[in-house]
Amino acid sequence: MSALAIENATSIHLPSSGTSYSGSNVPPPVANRPLHVLIAGAGLGGLFLGILLERAGISYEIFERSAELRPLGSIMCLSPNILPAFEQLGLLDELMSFSKPSRGGTMLTDKLELVGKAVATSADIIGYDRILFARLELQEMLFKKIPSSKMHMSKKVVSFQQNDEGVTVRFGDDTTSCGDILVGADGAHSTVRQHLYKTLTKKGILPKTDNKEMSRGYISLVGTTEALDPAKYPGILDEDSESYYVVGDKDTPYTWVTFTVPRNRICWNVIIQLGITDIADDQFKTSDWVPQENQKFMDTIRSFKTPYGTLGDLFDATPIERVSKVYFEDQLFETWHHERTVLIGDAAHKLLPSSGAGAVNAMQDAVLLANHLYDIKPTSFENIQSALKEYKLERFEAVKDQYPQSHMSAKLIYGHTLWERIVRHVVFNWLPKAIQHKQFLKDTAYRPQANFLPQAPKRGSLEVIPQQPSKHNQKAKKDGEEAKERIAGAASV
């Protein structure tokens, strides 16, 4: 059966067993079945959701298009907005083993003159430090928590079909898998989203804003060095991560960033603003992102100064196969779910990078989606639709509120137009630190946790935003109290 035939089928009965099979025969439905979730994408959001579902006792499988984890060299930052969820899952200590706290940052000119310093944070107030590490190490940690029987590599989604019986996903190897819910956690250029939107467009129900292309404002080249010599790089031994943001002048419209991470390494990142130089625009047009192309670009910026010497010194200590080129894009989609399909992370909302906003939001999505999936009792089409709707209602505004700030952060750090340079000067020289600190505390107060697990202990003096309790647990508690009352009443009679 072709993908088109699957899409247009009108009477297909789908099970929730998660069994993959070849061919066109779709198995009959299973009565009174438990919920089974299909997750497309083994990025941070998909893996975190899998771990949450494992703890919730919900059946799931993860399907990743790649044959193995890609060795991305990118820098990662996690904020207190997600660390309580790591703690309640028992993952915080392991996360900290390859992380360093980041309690501030220094911005310099390309001549290494001071521009300003970021507002220092205090764990006494916010409970947790922001932490920095190499992204691949977090992905590897989460990957190892997923049972091998539930992880399927080299499974590229090409299409899916859903109705009131279930959802069937077809992969590039002509196998299929069936379940109750499909989660698109497959990134900014999500195949799940593209197929879903194509279907909704045919039905005439997709908002026009969801069909526009994402805005691409920057290109980033990222990498992590091998272990360095502390005699030459003494800052790598500090307990805190040394964080430097070097902003080029009008003739050098780049920003390059360095962070020290455990095991005597430095993560580096070079950001180019599109529309400013021909070099950046040529890189944007280059479709060949093999290591040789990355090397050509790196050769043009080797002389840029850092507090550790030149960028070339860091490049020479970085294996070229661990250098990655990524776009900084942004778009907030209106449509996050339809029938049995739901989107999380970059598939639903792509933000410009700001303190790990993309990764943090993807994992926050996973937390709140897991909460609503846990409340699906019994497994019915109506309850599934209701849960996905409530997930978006609870989550959408929290994500939407971050877009203005992500744009401002990008302008402050990566912007090179005259207006952006003026804004940067005003913020770092004239804006009172008290106002910056107040905004930081407001942003840090949103910390969703799994409501079906014991909550992480309260840390710091900051009052966090309360979240919705589990409907399932509330109902169980109410039923238990009513049962006790009936027993007590019967005993008195």
UniProtKB/TrEMBL annotation:
Q: What Gene3D superfamilies does its record include?
A: FAD/NAD(P)-binding domain
Where does the record place the region Disordered?
457-493
Does Flavoprotein count among this protein's keywords? yes
The signal peptide annotation in the UniProt record is none
Which superkingdom?
A: Eukaryota
Pfam families according to UniProt: FAD_binding_3
Q: Care to name a GO molecular-function term for this sequence?
A: FAD binding
> Could you tell me where the Basic and acidic residues compositional bias lies?
476-487
Q: Which UniProt keywords apply?
A: FAD, Flavoprotein, Oxidoreductase
Q: Where is the FAD-binding domain?
A: 36-197, 318-375
Q: Which family does it belong to?
A: Belongs to the paxM FAD-dependent monooxygenase family.
**Protein's recorded name:** FAD-binding domain-containing protein
Per the UniProt record, the source organism is: Linnemannia gamsii
Phylogenetic lineage: Eukaryota, Fungi, Fungi incertae sedis, Mucoromycota, Mortierellomycotina
